[in-house]
Design the sequence.
C-alpha cells in the first residue's frame, strides 16, 4: 500500500516529507525507510533527517546544494525532486528494530489521580501499561526522550494543563502516548512510575540507545529493586 | 595560554556553527544565534568560519587576557572597553597580555561574539563545540562561564607581540568588516509561508503582515515569544509533532506567536504559520525584548538569493582577511 506523500518547504533550509497526521506504525515505518535510504544516499549539503510520527524533515545548507549541483531551479525545488526520488526508491518497510525491556517502579505522582479518574485499581493501570509492546515512534523534546505508543485507551490521559518539574527516569502518559523523561525537565505528562535505566548519557559514544522503530516493553519492579538498581 | 574570567556575564557560552546530525536523538543543533556575526568574527581573526567562540549577552563578562592575542568583537554594541579605553567593533585588534576587557553599557543589539585567533581549546562533543545547557555537554564543561574559569586559546599561526608597538596596550588592525547591509531595517523580518499558513483566517493573515509584534521579555535562545494581535485559524487543527526549524513561527493555542531560535526543540506540534528566512535570522538574533518585529512575506526562492548574496560576501571577506593577516605577518 502506498501512502500519499506531501513534500513542503520548512523555511529555506529544510523540507518535510509528510505522510499524514496520525500516530500510525505504517506511516512511521515508511518515514523510517525513507530516512534510511537518505542516510545511505545523502546529497551534498544534507545536514540531517529528523523522523517524527508520520513525517521526515530534511535539513540542508542551501548554499552547498547550489554550489555543488548548480541546479537551474531554486534549491528548494531541487531538494523537493531529490526527496521525491528518495520516496520512490526507498523500501516499503524499514528493518525491524531492537526490543528494550524497561523496569518500572510504578509509584508515580499521578498514578492515584489516574486511578480515581479512570475508576481503575492501581494494579489494573500497572497491568494495562506493562502488558503491551510499544513502538518507538520518534525521539524529540529532550535528548533521548522516546515517544512510545500507543497506550490502551483505558489509560490514555490528557496532558496536564500546567507543566510541573518531572524527575529524570519518570515514565509518563500523555494522550495515547507514553514516554520516559531522560533528564529532569518541566513537563505536562502524567507520571505513573520511575525507571532506574539511564536513557541519556552525554559521555557515551552513543548517548542515546533507543532508536525510532525499536520496541519497548515495561515490567514492574518493587520500590526496593528500583532503589538498589539506582545505586 | 589563556583568558581568565574575572566576572561572568549574564550568559556567556562557547558556541560554533551548530551540532548537526543528532536531532534524531533529540539533541538540537544549537550553536550561535547570529551566524553572520559569528562567521565574520572568526574570519577577521583568521579562523575558519565555524571555529569555537564566545557568545556574550548583556551585562557582559570581565575577562583578563593572560597572553597577547588577536581578538575581535562582532555583533551587538555593549560598549567594549579594554582597561577603560573603548574598543571598536567588527575590527581585528591585538590586545596585550594582562589587559582586561569589560562591557560598559548596552547601546544596541542582543548578543555579541568574541573571537580569538586560534579559537578556544575545548573538546568537541558530537562533532561540535557548542554548549548544550540542557544536556550539560559541549563547550566549556557543558555550562555557561563562571568566575575564574580559564579558556585556553587554540593554536597560533602568528607571533602577535611583534605586531604591538612597545608603548601600546592594543592596536586595531586597519581593516574592518562592513556589515551595514545585513543589519539594515532591523525590524523588517522576511518570512516564507509555513505549512499551516493557509489555515489562518484572512483577517489573521492581514494582521500578521500589517501589525507590529513585540518581543516578550521571556524570550531567550530557545525562542522569541511575541506579543501582538491574537491570530485565529479558520478551524482547529489536529496535528502530530514533526520537525521544526530555526526561524519557524508557531501559533500557540492562545493565538500568540513564538519564533523558534537556535536552542529550539527538535520537534513541535503547533501550527507552523511561517519561517523567518535564513538571511534575516542575524537581524532577528540582534533584536531584544520589547523591540518590535514587522513581518513581510517572500518566497523561498527569493530567500535563497538573499542568503547566497550574503554567503558570497563572506567568501570575499574571508579571502581578504587571510591575505591581510599574511601580509602583516611578513612585514613585522
Sequence:
Amino acid at each position: 500500500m502506498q501512502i500519499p506523500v506531501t513534500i513542503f518547504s520548512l523555511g529555506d533550509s529544510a523540507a518535510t516529507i509528510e505522510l499524514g497526521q496520525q500516530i500510525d506504525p505504517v506511516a512511521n515505518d515508511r518515514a523510517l525507510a525513507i530516512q534510511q535510504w537518505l542516510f545511505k544516499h545523502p546529497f551534498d549539503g544534507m545536514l540531517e533527517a529528523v523522523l517524527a510520527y508520520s513525517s521526515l524533515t530534511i535539513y540542508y545548507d542551501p548554499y552547498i546544494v547550489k554550489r555543488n549541483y548548480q541546479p537551474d531551479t531554486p534549491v528548494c525545488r531541487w531538494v523537493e525532486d531529490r526527496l521525491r526520488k528518495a520516496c520512490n526508491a526507498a523500501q516499503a518497510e524499514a528493518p525491524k528494530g531492537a526490543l528494550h525491556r524497561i523496569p518500572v517502579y510504578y509509584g508515580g505522582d499521578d498514578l492515584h489521580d489516574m486511578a480515581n479518574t479512570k475508576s481503575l485499581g492501581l494494579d489494573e493501570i500497572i497491568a494495562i501499561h506493562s502488558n503491551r509492546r510499544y513502538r518507538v515512534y520518534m525521539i524529540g523534546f529532550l535528548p533521548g526522550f522516546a515517544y512510545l505508543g500507543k497506550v490502551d485507551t483505558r489509560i490514555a490521559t490528557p496532558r496536564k494543563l500546567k507543566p510541573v518539574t518531572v524527575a529524570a527516569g519518570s515514565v509518563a502518559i500523555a494522550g495515547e502516548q507514553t514516554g520516559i523523561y531522560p533528564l529532569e525537565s518541566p513537563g505536562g505528562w502524567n507520571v505513573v512510575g520511575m525507571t532506574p535505566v539511564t536513557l541519556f548519557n552525554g559521555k557515551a559514544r552513543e548517548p542515546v540507545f533507543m532508536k525510532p522503530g525499536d520496541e519497548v516493553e515495561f515490567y514492574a519492579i518493587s520500590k526496593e529493586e528500583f532503589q538498589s538498581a539506582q545505586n | 595560554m589563556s583568558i581568565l574570567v574575572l566576572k561572568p556575564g549574564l550568559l556567556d557560552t562557547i558556541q560554533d556553527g551548530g551540532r548537526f546530525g543528532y536531532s534524531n536523538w533529540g539533541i538540537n543543533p544549537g550553536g550561535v544565534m547570529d551566524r553572520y556575526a559569528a562567521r565574520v568574527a572568526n574570519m577577521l581573526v583568521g579562523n575558519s568560519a565555524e571555529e569555537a567562540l564566545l557568545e556574550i549577552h548583556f551585562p557582559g563578562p570581565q575577562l583578563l587576557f593572560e597572553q597577547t592575542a588577536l581578538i575581535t568583537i562582532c555583533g551587538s554594541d555593549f560598549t567594549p572597553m579594554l582597561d577603560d579605553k573603548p574598543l571598536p567593533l567588527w575590527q581585528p585588534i591585538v590586545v596585550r597580555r594582562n589587559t582586561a576587557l569589560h562591557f560598559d553599557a548596552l547601546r544596541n543589539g542582543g548578543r555579541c561574539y568574541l573571537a580569538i585567533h586560534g579559537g578556544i581549546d575545548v573538546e568537541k562533543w558530537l562533532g561540535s563545540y557548542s554548549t548544550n545547557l540542557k544536556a550539560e555537554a559541549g563547550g566549556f564543561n557543558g555550562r555557561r562561564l563562571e568566575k575564574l574559569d580559564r579558556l585556553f586559546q587554540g593554536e597560533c599561526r602568528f607571533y602577535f607581540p611583534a605586531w604591538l608597538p612597545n608603548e601600546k596596550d592594543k592596536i586595531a588592525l586597519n581593516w574592518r568588516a562592513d556589515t551595514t547591509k545585513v543589519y539594515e531595517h532591523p525590524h523588517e523580518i522576511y518570512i516564507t509561508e509555513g505549512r499551516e499558513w493557509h489555515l489562518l483566517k484572512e483577517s489573521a493573515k492581514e494582521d500578521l503582515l500589517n501589525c507590529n509584534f513585540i518581543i516578550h521579555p521571556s524570550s531567550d535562545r530557545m525562542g522569541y515569544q511575541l506579543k501582538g494581535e491574537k491570530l485565529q485559524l479558520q478551524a482547529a487543527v489536529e496535528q502530530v509533532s514533526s520537525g521544526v526549524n530555526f526561524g519557524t513561527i508557531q501559533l500557540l493555542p492562545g493565538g500568540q506567536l513564538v519564533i523558534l531560535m537556535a536552542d529550539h526543540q527538535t520537534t513541535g506540534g503547533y501550527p507552523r504559520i511561517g519561517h523567518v528566512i535564513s538571511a534575516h535570522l542575524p537581524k532577528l538574533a540582534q533584536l531584544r525584548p520589547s523591540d518590535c518585529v514587522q513581518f513581510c512575506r517572500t518566497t523561498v526562492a527569493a530567500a535563497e538569493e538573499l542568503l547566497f548574496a550574503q554567503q558570497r560576501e563572506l567568501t570575499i571577506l574571508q579571502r581578504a582577511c587571510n591575505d591581510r593577516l599574511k601580509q602583516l605577518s611578513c612585514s613585522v
Observations:
- The two ends of chain B are 22 Å apart (CA to CA).
